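Deviation from plan, reported transparently: FE2/S2 (inorganic) cluster complex.
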Amino acid sequence: MQDQKNPDSGDQAQPEGMRKGLTNYGDAGFSLFLRKAFIKGAGYTDSALERPVIGITDTASGYNPCHGNMPQLIEAVQRGVMLAGGLPVKFPTISIGESFAAPTSMYLRNLMSMDTEEMLRAQPMDAVVLIGGCDKTVPAQLMGAASAGLPAIQLITGSMLTGSHRGETVGACTDCRRYWGRYRADEIDDQEIADVNNQLVASVGTCSVMGTASTMACIAEALGMTVPGGASPPAVTADRMRVAERTGEVAVQMAKARLGTDQILTAKAFENAMRVLLAIGGSTNGIVHLTAIAGRAGFEVDLKALDRMGRETPVLVDLKPSGQHYMEHFHAAGGMTTLLRELKPLLHLDALTVTGRTLGEELDRASAPFTQDVIRTRDNPIYPQGGIAVLQGNLAPGGAIIKQSAADPKLMEHVGRAVVFEGLEDLALRIDSDDLDVEAGDVLVLKNIGPKGAPGMPEAGYIPIPRKLARQGVKDIVRISDGRMSGTAFGTIVLHVTPESAIGGPLAHVRSGDRIRLSVANREISLLVSDEELAQRAKDNPVVVPSAQRGYRKLFLSTVMQADKGVDFDFLAAVEMKGIVPRA
Ligand code: FES
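Because the crystal trials were delayed, the predicted structure below was used instead.
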């Protein structure tokens, strides 16, 4: 074959398939000859090797039950790729299971994004199917793909089924926290907490509420990075497998059309995704991840503009933790098609999707709407404004956020006395002590759980209600930290305080007994202490910024950015910035 002798013959600028990214032996012809010899050792024919090569990320792991349907998904994707005339090639990348990663999965998100990006660059493929689902995997894959730039399509693993505990529908992980809170308050006994532990996760798949995984699934579809309807089918359903097959087919079309991520991840796509994040009452983590993905695509996120967008975007999806239902109900209600149709006047319908058609064209092709009670209309919302509000003030000069749709309305305008915990160890030591000086109207402050503090910005911002208050029946209390919280959590919880305490942000200098004002109406989070006093405290107690001697921890601590930059590494952001989103 002529191409075997000269792999750069034909389209020299953009080699395809197995000719892409040849290993450098100083002789391109030999490089391809060798590559083909080795892959033929696996039984491939020349005819197979001439097809468009579609890489498939295999993120199966015994430590990641949220990806437990990976073998079936890969089989369906491979079928779709071959039906469309491509050659599927699966390859492994890091997989991160939320509750199996120490110190926190977020510490590893950027590592997974680097793994994904470099494997996409290093290995010959004309397009890639990214299979992810658990919280950090989808953002990591989208970040890596945005940086690598080749045609990429996201396949979501899908949500787990709900379980049933003593006649009540339960699902991870809003109910995990609710039952654990009841156990801490001595409302249920050891037997019941053990019983419910068997029911909370009824199958493989991602958390069944509108937590971070479901939020990122919806964001991926809103960005145009999945096939239409790709966000919502549960993991173990035929619908999910059909989505997988269709994803394989579309990947081949994308490879042929050379439809790169730069054509899909545009300002309009990010604005659509932000609308959806707000309208689903999505996880606060969605802001961090979307900011990081946008940063890779060359866009900076304007948190104040996002807040303005939130004021005119109602929460429409009635899913826990903001509402009542679970992901399987969202899917039965038509999923993203129903939601996007309702949001139409607020969306850029001309944004391109992986299918090569625009969002508007896809909505026009979708099945007819029907009556359901999970996705509301804009004139009958779950919550009149977007689920997430952006706060500012002397306690968070770089911003902080609160998920107002999942908070107690009575606490959203509040002044209280600070009860400070210096870090996670201090919290563990004192939170349940009968001697803790705390009352229901106080404000719990937790320091040193930001990007550098813990490190990795763990989901510890959901500070438990002190046991003595829980026993008194207190269900919510204002809590403030520089950390994150699970998208499945509920409470009046201020998160992502920027700059974080570990690098000397004002949060570092809060003392027990200080007064703090939270006003969601005014988007304010203030420490009622004078600037002079704060400056004196900073002088008296200078902060030592965390560092490490070697390895990934050293890379992490020396390059990680703050929450307002998506907690990405500074050297991974796009070299050329294209603009700010959302645009004013
Ligand atoms: Fe994986 Fe919730 S633990 S999605």
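The two ends are 56 Å apart (CA to CA). We consider this an acceptable substitute for the interim report.
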